[in-house]
What does this fold into?
Amino acid sequence: MSNTKQYRPGDKVRFLNDVGGGEVRRVQKDGTLIVETEDGFEYPVAAEDLVLIERGVESLVQHTADEAPKHTDPEKMKISEDRTVYKVLLAFTRDDGVRNVSMFLINDSPYYLNFALYQAYDEAYKLISQDVLEPDTKLELMTIDDRDLNDLKKVAMQGLFTGNKMQQLKPAIQTELKIKPARLIQDEAYSNSDYFHDKAQVHVMYSNDIVVNADLSEVTSEKEMQEKLDAEKHSRSKKRPEPVVWEEDLHVNELVDSVVGMSNHEILESQMSYFHEVLNEAIKERIESVVFIHGIGNGTLKSTLRKSLDNDYKLHYEDASFKEYGFGATRVFPTQQAKS
It folds into this structure.
């Protein structure tokens, strides 16, 4: 029998005992689902009278009738305004014993931030929030239900710094951030930070500090700093760029919240599903190599993974660095075909 919690706004459904179907628009307090048909009419339907056809992409930005989005005012932070390094950060918090996760955007800069934040899919971007964030301010954007966390795998942002008095115009920001949903519900993944009283996960989405460990003590103005950064960037551009290497941990405790009740076959399926997802993205992005950490164990995951590389992808691979991973990892080259 169907369950109301199975359905979310945006899901494609068909009627079990009637012709046609439509898209779930909202869930009412009594559990009845409001379904909009192709002709634009909305009908109340019981969950058990529907069949799920396709999971919608609206889940993170839609809310049920009794779960209206909570509006929160931006919170001013005490940060020195006399600085040349500024950042935009994405952060997550969660209360003890609660699986829901709150998402924040942090403007750690002396400028106003005009931003648009999106949930990123393979070929689409769904708007999460669009606003203007004051200098040195953090804003709670949304609370994500634990049922929807698996949908949040990549976040994209476009932004522009503005201000009443600026020495020079700032470049527009366009950036993406990969997220591991399983990490969002692991207590050990949260730590103390300068931005929250309680523990949080804080990720840098943008920083103008592009020179690592640079000594900027001689920089007396932002213009001089930018000239120095541009000069170093130009000198680096003459060098061959370092190869891009991804590292992905396939241990099941990194992928799911709990293995209680899962069979060995289900665990292997979960690990291989994530392996395929990462490898296909690496092929699309033409990543130099990906290190898959599978561990030693009984060797089932390793042999299944390599069999798929031989038969499905026909890609070159090798044992990863023994010094770093022992016998527990395989390095795959997404841009190199296996030799016949």
Q: What stands out?
A: Confidence is low (pLDDT under 50) at residues 57-71, 211-222.
